[in-house]
């Protein structure tokens, strides 16, 4: 058994987080949480947003809706940009929402919506959110990390969450 206060634990933790950086394709920090995917989504919200911050929640399903609900619970002003279940995020509508809400701090998006099986084009979404509007991009990658390409740094994703029981 490894003592969580001993040097073996520290070495193991650093080794694992270094390998996770490869999975996420990032040089940024990687944090291992002892929570569900929803807990990781909560951590993303509470560690990047403050009560009263405006966010755009681009949602295509149940888990996209959940991301927005979590933001609301923690006091964010959520502008919901809903798309019919089974469809992907329309980039022109996303641009319009960002133009109409210049004070938005971030965009919430689910890369792969488990409830519908729809995969959003995260690279294109990031190009709009980061490249055109320079807003924070918080990504629910719970069912996409390790299952499909998700290039955190190359695409400019600020926060990507996942859970061990998924992809």
Task: Summarize the structure in words.
It is a single chain. This protein has helices at residues 7-24, 37-46, 62-73, 91-100, 122-132, 152-155, and strands at 54-59, 77-82, 104-110, 112-113, 118-119, 136-140, 159-161. The chain has 167 residues and is an alpha/beta fold. The strands form two sheets. Strands 2-1-3-6-7 form a five-stranded parallel beta sheet, with helices on both faces. A two-stranded antiparallel sheet has the order 4-5. Strand 1 (54-59), helix 3 (62-73) and strand 2 form a beta-alpha-beta unit. Helix 4 runs parallel beside helix 5. The longest helix is centred in the N-terminal third of the chain and has 18 residues, at 7-24. The mean pLDDT is 89.
Helices and strands, with pairings:
Layout: H1 7-24, H2 37-46, E1 54-59, H3 62-73, E2 77-82, H4 91-100, E3 104-110, E4 112-113, E5 118-119, H5 122-132, E6 136-140, H6 152-155, E7 159-161
Parallel strand pairs: 1-2, 1-3, 3-6, 6-7
Antiparallel strand pairs: 4-5
